[in-house]
Design goal:
By secondary structure, the protein is an alpha+beta fold. It has 2 domains: 31 residues; 81 residues, no CATH class. It has a 4-stranded antiparallel β-sheet, with no helix packed on it. The chain has a 3-stranded antiparallel β-sheet with strand order 1-2-5, with no helix packed on it. The radius of gyration is 23 Å and the shape is elongated. The protein starts with a helix and ends with a strand.
Length: 128
């Protein structure tokens, strides 16, 4: 009884020893490449609501950083300042609409919690 179980176990271990590294390498090859997200392009569209100014955020598919949050700031620079106001999480699959706490001009910072860095910056100018 033990010998057949050992043969089966030996076969399963051999299959796993070949399959797990192959799946790992395929997963590494399938992940998106690292690119410079500092030039985010047109990620935001400005609009007016009854409550004030809102922004529609439709991130590009290549913005693949983990757990991206949108922040509103009036402070220049590429770092997340202490006075930045959280607008909300960014969903890479759909367009979201967020209210701005103050009228433009200002900037939206896209901050990745997973990377602990600003991955994109979008200036928002006042609407004409």
């Amino acid at each position: 009884m033990i010998a057949p179980l050992r043969r089966r176990h030996r076969l399963l271990i051999a299959v796993l020893a070949l399959a797990v590294p192959a799946v790992f390498v395929l997963a590494l090859l399938a992940r998106p490449s690292e690119t410079d997200y500092q030039d985010a392009g047109a990620l935001a569209e400005l609009g007016r609501t009854s409550a004030g100014t809102a922004v529609e955020i439709a991130p590009r598919p290549e913005l693949t950083a983990p757990d991206v949050l949108a922040y509103w700031t009036l402070t220049p620079g590429d770092r997340l300042p202490d006075d930045a106001v959280l607008l909300g999480p960014v969903d890479a699959t759909r367009t979201i609409r967020l209210e701005l706490p103050s009228p433009p001009p200002g900037r939206i910072l896209f901050y990745s919690l997973g990377h602990q860095e600003v991955v994109a910056v979008q200036p928002v100018e006042a609407a004409p």
